[in-house]
Every structure is written in C-alpha cells, then in structure tokens.
Amino acid sequence: MVRAVGARRPDGQQPRRTARACARRAGFEAIGIELPSIYGPFGILLVFSLKFYPFVFLLTAGALGAINRSLEEAAESLGAGTWRRFFTVTLPLVFPAVTSGRALQRERGKNR
C-alpha cells in the first residue's frame, strides 16, 4: 500500500520520522535553530527554489564573469566603498540576468 508523505496512519497517529531526520532536527534545535515543517507552503517554495536554482545560477554566473573589472576599479579609485560599488556597478550589470533567470524559473514552474 502506498501512502502520501505526511499522511496519518490507519490508527490515527502521525507517521514515524526516520532516525536521521530526528537526529538532524535535534542537532539544529540543540543550537537554537528551529526548523519549519516542509509540509505546506514553505516546503513547496523550498522544493521549487532548489529545483530551478541551476537556471538562475548559470545566468547569474555568466553575467558576473562578463563584468569588466575596470568598471569596478574606476568606482574604487573614485572612492566608492565595497557596498557602494556593489549597488552602483555590479548589481545593475547583473540585474537583467537575475530577472531573466527568475522569469525562466517562474515559467518552467507554471508548466509543471
């Protein structure tokens, strides 16, 4: 008999977690990090984000590799700090690749 993950057993109790999942959860809780349940909207967002991550990564990595280093050096020579260089030089150059990757991710998610 095949049951859906997270479904209740015939006797009405919750299904047992595996030992590895319990140990992992206990390890995080020991240091004060509470993990949310993956059953629900958070889990759906997590799975789809991880599933389509390579598309966004490849587009963004290509855009970062194509940035001319002299633009950042010019901003640095004009006195721009690290964060200012990021927001005024790097981010505007990478933004089209990130948004196109996000659009691709969204469209592929709709078609599934």
Q: What is the strand and helix layout of this fold?
A:
Elements: H1 19-30, H2 41-51, H3 53-66, H4 69-77, H5 82-110
Helix pairs in contact: 3-5, 4-5
Notes on the structure:
This protein is mainly alpha-helical. It has a domain of 73 residues. Helix 3 packs antiparallel against helix 5 and helix 4 runs antiparallel to helix 5. The longest helix is centred in the C-terminal third of the chain and has 29 residues. It is elongated and about 70 Å long.
Mean pLDDT: 78
Radius of gyration: 22 Å
Overall spatial form: elongated
**Main β-sheet description:** none
What is the overall number of helices? 5
Beta fraction of the residues? under 5%
**What letter string, H or E per element, gives the SSE order?**
HHHHH
Structural class: mainly alpha
Poorly predicted sequence stretches spanning 5 or more consecutive residues = none
Number of strands: 0
The span between the termini is 26 Å
- Give the % helix: 55-70%
Keywords summarizing the entry:
mainly alpha; 5 helices; 0% strand
Could you give a quick summary of the protein structure above?
With 112 residues, this protein is mostly helical.
